[in-house]
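Run log, item B.
One chain of 337 residues. Sequence copied directly from the ordering sheet:
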Amino acid sequence: MATMRFGRTNLTVGRTGMGCIPIQRITYDESTALLRRAFDGGVTVFDTANGYTTSEERIGIALGEVRHKVVLCTKSGAGTPADLITQLDNSLRMLRTDYIDVFQFHNPGKVPVPGGADGLYDALDAARRAGKVRFIGISAHKRENAETAVASGFYDVLQFPFSYLSTPAEMAVAALCHTHDVGVLGMKALSGGILTNAQAAFAYLRAYENIVPIWGIQTPEQLDEILGYEKAPPAMDDAMQTVINNDRVALAAAFCRACGYCLPCPAQIPIPMAARMKYLLRRMRTDVFQSPEWQVQMRRIDDCTQCGHCATHCPYELDVPKLLKEHQDDYFRQLAV
């Protein structure tokens, strides 16, 4: 597999990474086989999070024996220093390691900084100095937060959505990372499941030399497809550009990026999740999102007051109420099956 320097971490990593949300949905034996197959195929970057139920545990089981040959990236959405350290220690235990290569703040509303009132950055920096963490990273869905984190100089790695549905301003974040020598993990290469042409997605992202896409992979067939493109990278020719242009026209107006600008919702609808629900059900554990609690959340869409807050605050000019209704209908159709 082609390798690259991962920003100022100076780690040498494979240019294809693996996002480990989908492995929650298969058996432990299947996830072990899949993760080892990925490693044997040259994948060295594996990304997960404390909140991804059994994902960390499965990685620890599968890759414990080759731990020093892989780069483990995980995340915490903790809101207090104490909870952050508790989650870090839990991640270490689940991953069967004594250090995390890249520990990330998981899409925080505000970028943590040294000396901040929340104490989060200082707590993680102390863990870094203690040897529990090698590099500090952050995942972000809001472009402004990503730009702030990168420009601050406090972050070694940024995880941000990059796909051929991204806007030029969003793709410019990759160039900003290059300027500041920040490593880049590209999440949502298939836009959360809305894109189905992995070949086009691979070709598009391969043109950005500092992005490591973390492909959400659940089956050996999906893995083999991506590894096949790694062996013989598809060209970004006129035919491929036509595929991309057609998808942009057809899909860009229907894709929620989960940036959160639509919040708060007066009806307490969890818009960034609800407006992507049919894609989440393809990738996450269905028992999580089909739980009684989530059924209540999805029924809140019926309580929409048409106040217009979400639509007027969406930077992508989505018809958010219409999108929510489409995903609600799909959700309850699947639930009835």
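Observations after the first pass:
- The chain has a mean pLDDT of 94.
- The domain at 3-236 is CATH 3.20.20.100 (TIM Barrel).
Flagged for discussion on Thursday.
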